[in-house]
Amino acid sequence: MGCRDVHAATVLAFLSGTASVAGLLAAVLLPNWRQMRLYTFNKNEKNVTVYTGLWIKCARFDGSRDCVIYDPQWYTAVDQLDLRVLQFALPLSMGTAVSALFLCLVGMCNTAFVSSVPNIKLARCLVNSAGCHLVAGLLFLLACAICLTPSIWVIFYNNYMNKKYAPVFSFDVSVFIAIASAGGLFFTSIMLFLWYCACKSSPSPFWQPLYPHAPSMHSYAAQPYSARSRLSAIEIDIPVVTHAS
Q1: Hey, where are the domains in the chain?
Q2: Of 39, 145, 202, 242, which residue is the least packed, with the fewest Cβ within 10 Å?
Q3: What is the DSSP letter of 239?
Q4: Whole-model pTM?
Q5: Is residue 131 classed as helix, strand or coil in its secondary structure?
């Protein structure tokens, strides 16, 4: 399969990027970044677990799924530095990844449906398949760094809070979802880089990431027909045989 076809690598990268963005969205919305478990020594009462998210906070009794205390305005009064950073980092990572997905889709469509002759208008705008995939890979890598760094910091900050206050804090499932999504973004960028490295040896300027100059259309223009080829069969010279005297 040549570079003109849609490789399985690009399709797999697009699907992996889409799944990673969906995972980031779930991590952002779920109120499961940190748990604070409050114990009681009264046998007539139940222990309480406070689930802290980026935007809401929910307190539940053990064995219950209903929130005894539900705070939808938690995002305005977050007093934990790591969660405050995540409020800005994760949406920024999602926006970067969505931009990369759009570029990846443009590159796939350009690979599948554009002719082998580079479009002179697109060439002047530096738009081609290899350029789209290369920039998309860089954006996926950037989105991975933006997501992964504060997500891992939650683990260390959780240990800091346990030492400073009481050993009642623990990180929750959203941390693992965010880290797994960051891994998916990194895998997506690697797939796009491998696709580009496998196809950059093609001699056509169509596969250069950025054109050094607009490709000349003279090299792609069809050669004109010769005047001889346009003559009809009647106009072809017929040799005349003459008798020797």
Answers
A1: 6-30+79-113+122-199
A2: 242
A3: P
A4: 0.74
A5: helix
